[in-house]
Amino acid sequence: MKTIGYAASAAGAPLSPYAFERRALRPNDVAMEILYCGVCHTDLHMARNDWGWTTYPIVPGHEIVGRVIEVGPEVTRFKAGDAVAVGCMVDSCQRCDQCRKGEEQLCREGITQTYNCPDRMTGDITYGGYSKHVVVREEFVLSVPDGLDLSRAAPLLCAGITTYSPLRTWNVGPGSRVGVIGLGGLGHMAVKLASGLGAHVAVLSRSHDKQADARALGADELLVSTHKEAMVKAGSSFDLIVDTVPVRHDLNPYLPLLDVDGTLVIVGQVGPLEEPITTPLLLGRRRVAGSPIGGIAETGEMLDFCGRKNILPECEMIRMDAINEAFERMERSDVRYRFVIDMSSLPGRAA
Ligand SMILES: [Zn+2]
Ligand SMILES: [Zn+2]
Fold first, then answer.
1. Which residues of 104-143 are buried (b: 16+ CB within 10 A; e: fewer)?
2. Which of 45, 117, 171, 246 could be cross-linked to 50 through a Cys-Cys bond (beta carbons 3.0 to 4.6 Å apart)?
3. 83: left (phi over 0), alpha (psi -120 to 50) or beta
């Protein structure tokens, strides 16, 4: 299937139109027309080879929403016209203990990522959602529940599940005390989802500037992390802190905020942090953990939860040809809170 997308051809190159082929349908494949694709920080890092493992050309995008246009003969759950979504992974071994219990994101053999990853059968590098069409095996395609606004649902597929999964892992519910560090794409979803689950939610921020925004998103309070007295007073007052900061930073101010057996879970930064001081970890049996996206079943559960509660990301819709400017604005944190590409702005047709 001929299609068109936007690709970067080298680390310093802007994204530009790129014509390529999607694979012919395998028996268990679903072909979809992409309507919307969210813009994740990972897209920017990968397009620029910030982590050193990018293969060019790269077509980023792993927050994908669209409609089924065709299915392979063995597909049972989808038919043409269905509203569907694809997130950060498009395949896994399907046999290991983690895959069997629905934690495909932890597959022992490693997941096949939606872009910049070798296909398990052909070895071809996967291309992501900054394109008109995508072909994905049925097991990694999700139904979008009725009533969930398709134009705003895309960021749920990475930012949503990345923050929902740790909330569920650590049993957040009514009575839980949850802190959220960072109020970007992930952080704003952590606030909405934790609040939707019934938790008391505090945004941890370096200044008062985000007070009104935090409230509007559903937070109960904003704790200013540079305010010494307030931080001392907030000691041992959180069960879970979701740390969404996507760059190197210092955990030490936050660890004493956790209650005994509390957990700070890192979902943003991939790479080094400032050196941690272990004293508060030992004294309070506190933990620092990490968490990657979530399994397919849990992603479906999250979509249903958002449908029921009408929880949607705050999005700024852009045209495909505005992506390079959007990357620059993301680097300055100049977005509230997620860019979503309207794929109808992408010219070109499939054969
Ligand atoms: Zn992402
Ligand atoms: Zn597996």
1. bbbbeeebbbbbbbeebeeeebbbbbbbbbbbbbbebbbb
2. 45
3. beta
Tokens (6 digits) for 266: 């890192």
Give the Å distance between the CA of 109 and the centre of ligand 1: 20
Burial of 82 (0-12, 13-18, 19+ CB in 10 A): middle
Residues 283-328 have pLDDT tens digits of 999 999 999 999 999 999 999 999 999 999 999 999 999 999 999 9
Calculate how far, in angstroms, residue 90's C-alpha sits from the geometric centre of ligand 2: 12
* CA distances (Å), origin 227, targets 88, 202, 253, 341: 37, 15, 11, 38
If you measure from the C-alpha of residue 230 to the centroid of ligand 1, how many angstroms do you get, rounded to a whole number?
33
Read off the pLDDT of residues 255-283 as tens digits, 9 standing for 90 and up.
999 999 999 999 999 899 999 999 999 99
User: How much distance in Å is there from the Cα of 233 to the middle of ligand 1?
Assistant: 34
The closest ligand to the CA of 60 turns out to be 1
- Residue 248 contacts residue 272 (beta carbons within 8 Å): yes
Q: Which ligand is nearest to the CA of 95?
A: 2
Query: Rounded to two decimals, what is the model's pTM?
Result: 0.96
- Phi and psi at 136, nearest 5°, equal -140, 140
pLDDT band at 347 (very low <50, low <70, confident <90, very high): confident
* 63 vs 54: CA distance, rounded Å: 19
Cβ atoms within 10 Å of 227's Cβ, excluding its own: 14
Ligand number nearest to the C-alpha of 96: 2
Answer yes or no: are the C-beta atoms of 286 and 260 closer than 8 Å: yes
Tokens of 283: 């004294």
d(CA 263, CA 340): 31
| Cα 209 to ligand 1 centroid, rounded to whole Å | 26
pLDDT tens across 72-92, in order? Answer: 999 999 999 999 999 999 999
